[in-house]
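DATA SHEET
Item: assembly model
Revision: 1
Owner: S.N.
Input lines:
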Amino acid sequence: MDKNVQERFTGVIKFTPPLYKQRYQFIKDLVGKYKPKKVADLGCADCTLLWMLKFCSCIEVLAGLDICENVMKEKMHRLSPLPGDYLQPAERSLTVTLHHGSVAHKDPCMLGFDLITCIELIEHLEESELEKFPEVVFGFMAPTMVVISTPNSEFNPLLPGVTFFRHPDHKFEWNRAEFQSWALSIARCYDYSVEFTGVGPPPTGMEDVGFCTQIGVFVRKYSQTSETAHFEKPTKAAYKTVFKAVYPSLKDEKYLQNAVVSEVVFTAQVIKRSLLDHLKSEHEEYNDSPVEIKSKFQHSKNCVSEDLEKLAVERSMEPFVNGNVVYIPLTKIFSFSKVNQLCGTFEKLRKLITGKVTLSSDGSAVMVSTEHENEEEEN
Amino acid sequence: MTGRARARARGRPRGQETAVPPVGAASVLCHSYSFPIFKTTEFQISAGFQEMSLGDRGGRRRDFHDLGVNTRQAIEHVRESKTGSSGIMIRLSTNYFRLTSRPQWVLYQYHVDYNPQMEARRLRSALLFQHEELIGRTHAFDGTILFLPKKLGNKVTEVFSRTRNGEDVKITVTLTNELPPTSPTCLQFYNIIFRRLLKMMNLQQIGRNYYNPSDPVSIPNHRLMVWPGFTTSILQYEKSIMLCTDVSHKVLRSETVLDFMYSLYNQVEEQRFRDVCTKELIGLIVLTKYNNKTYRVDDIDWDANPKCTFIKADGSEISYIDYYKMQYNQEITDLNQPVLVSQPRRRRGSIMPGPAVLIPELCYLTGLTEKMRNDFNMMKDLSIHTRLTPEQRQREVGRLIDYIQKDDSVQRELRDWGLSFDSNLLSFTGRVVQAEKIQQGGRAFDYNPHFADWSKETRGAPLINAKPLDNWLLIYTRRNYDVANALLQNLFKVTPSMGIRMNKAIMIEVDDRTEAYLRVLQQNVTSDTNIVVCVLSSSRKDKYDAIKKYLCTDCPIPSQCVIARTLSKPQTIMAIATKIALQMNCKMGGELWTVDIPLKQLMVVGIDCYHDTVSGKRSIAGFVASLNQGMTRWFSRCVLQDRGQELVDGLKACLQTALRDWFKWNKFLPSRVMVYRDGVGDGQLKTLVNYEVPQLLDCLKSVGKDYNPRLSVIVVKKRVNTRFFAQSGGRPQNPPPGTVVDIEVTRPEWYDFFIVSQAVKSGSVAPTHYNVVYDSSGLKPDHVQRLTYKLCHMYYNWSGVIRVPAPCQYAHKLAFLVGESIHKEPNLSLSDRLYYL
């Protein structure tokens, strides 16, 4: 290595965006590509990665595990649903859970995941924990995909101020050969394939040190049916749940019903208003220009029988007023795209709103009262 | 934190072809919630907001509770006791819970230093908490100040931590204070800890309050959603530190700003759309979809759209679409929508951050627009859910305390700090002062004090001063001829018993257009006209505004507008004609009733503000001063605050004119002036005391060398979270009108009291808080309380007791009319009449 080049770089290595963000982005990209439904982050610390992942619409289950309860708790509330999530519940369901525990212990709550990430985790493990790690993650949890990142010690000379390890809590830092041989042996043992990559590219002229952070992406080679997954696995819990948030979702009947009832009532109001406005403007025309009305009358006289018949047919679809009540056929409401999308079928619509919305006696129309507002204003 | 992109767009956003005004220094920014109050030390807390203008209620809010304003000590005669004596005792409970700490409880305050200096707060905490074995699990830290429930071994402790870059950092933790439970710093600390507890209970913070999202009430008719929640604060009250908590309802709307824009677009003509939309949205609070932050809409940038770009903190340029996609996975579907602009309220350190740019599609509306508030049906539907009876309210408040007592992690946190809450509502004894007799037409009327209403009792009694309707106009559109005529006939029926002499009105038919109304007014109003009555066909504001503006400024004549629909029901028209007759009489300078006011030579002043959110945040203050002993005649003026001008300059001018008018009426000057000041926002008390009161004193001094009247300044606050429950018959009920509370829940550093003056038909009654911030009157607290209560009987638009002293309500009415409709100062020739009623 050319000593001058090295000296030139030691002072100026700076990653934009910062390296930790690049690592998270790497995971986000991976999630975007493979669309896993269940994702767990081991060593989730202050839950930043989990927080970023909750916005990924493919994920339905998010779990975090960390050995330090306090660091998880400090920011865990940002994993809670937001007001907006309640205002317009999403189609997908999402449950976020945080567990307090060690990656050296097996707990059934980590079974059946599509992706498990261990970002800058293994270098914090004591030797005894590191020994158990492969069996727990690859043998027991056995997700479809595992991502492990760890510092590449070959890069350390380029980092300012790093003399030994990058962080005082690191128990070791591996070079690429060490990491890869560890990873390959795990892959062999647990029937995974592994590919190596990284983030934080070395500066020009120093390419041979490799990425600042080295990453192994493991993919399980055998397919696992859900039965085999839970077969002969222990069911005793080893972790403590510290946080759980179930996001409102339209998959939940309660939220779906709320959403449908809201949409139906609102749609009915819109139809009622436009119908009444229409009738009112006709009425006003009536007052202002008697001549025109006369002709209208003549017209209707002539076609009275024809019109009535047509009216009867249209009634199945068109709203009408009877006394103080506007009848809005459910078929009409079902034809609105939002209602349609929410319910899917007409039967489902009927089922969801029964008992929640006032319907006509035969259940075919929504009834809305036309009662006048009685506001009183004098000034 | 990745969720915080703070960046300033330079100049004009790209993706626009035409040269249009720039988004300016647009930036997307999201404040992270930190401990804002910790940033100031104990001494700065009370001194940090000198230059704040009293104009806008929104202002910069640092100290919602006006801590550190100690006005009582300067008022000699209440230093010992500020309690009144009259009335009968009543057992009350209130929504307060005592906070208790274990004996000899002390909070240890430490200062934490880093060498080399570390800037980021998160890094500072991470480095410090590498030493958890030293610090312990229980702590509160804002990056500089550390609070612990325990004392560290040494006064100065030094520890070393290493950053991720391998840098060694020396951390020095120095004990700076041992705080007793009542220290102001401790109060802030309690509030921070309490917010932690609320979060633990999974309540969502929106604005200042916390809400429970799991049990929402949806009102689909209006696309509204109501979240039940709590407003809470922990403060030092008269004898103890207490948690005051009340039920709060957050009205959210299940539609985005973009949805709203679309439905509005379908309702109004194309060319008016932008104006109407701006008017509707500006000042509203929106909630973003992707994080839990609320913003006030200050502007709409019609020239920008989501394709515009801005510069991120790292210097890279990104479009809003890409930013939201990348950061929050939020798809923006409408690429042509304008953007909302929100000015930051708070400084971050020494720099004022640039405005935040928000995408309508990603923002939900919260709260109610003015239009919605005026929608009778909507408010009715809403009140079913938000208006709680005393019993319901007490139960809901109790539920919060139950949560606290039952939640394990909450209890542990409290235990770790050595704190606990009482599980019962605070209860004590209040007083109900005697009901006032209403004097009208030489007779004194009694009425049921529980209803606080005498409209039935005084019906048909002659008024104190009835103004004749000799020459007056009645203007109507063709379609409303019948109702106009019905009004006229009914006025003929009801006026004689009041003592009002009435001729037939000059009836004028008018086209239903604004210009037509104005032309009719110009042609028919003469200097002899007593009053103009207009029957309007709809509640459309433009005609009303035009009529009021013309008749209050260009051609000063009292006017009365009535909406035709109000008169359309034969069964109620007589009652309505009665009310209108009374109102018209007041507008012409008549007097209705009075109560016994024992204090002589007293001028009472009421001040309230209206904040015009639309036309450039201009504030308008209404100023109303009594002119006679019976408080039946009033002098009314208003102040339009111009940019950079303080309201008080105008108020001084008002006070001077009021004194001159008083002199004209009474041939001497008042020996006492009592100012009821409403419209003071949370955290503005200091400014009022330090700036406005001295100016009022100056103004009185300037009247004459020997003139030295006694002055009292009383701050009136309607929006308080305090509620009282009368415990009678085993069920909590509203306390009766006339209930006075001046112990327990008042503040030791103030001369303050609560009065429940009004009666409510449904829901829980809200007491009004009165804070006497200046008083050279020497009057006993009991007399001030009684006088205040008497004044609540004197509002002529309501035959009953109201929530605030009449001059405040008059001032409110005046400021509202000017702010909403007239937008300039009314003609001074009207100032001796209640023309704005």
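QC remark: Residues 752 and 771 of chain B are 4 Å apart (CA to CA).
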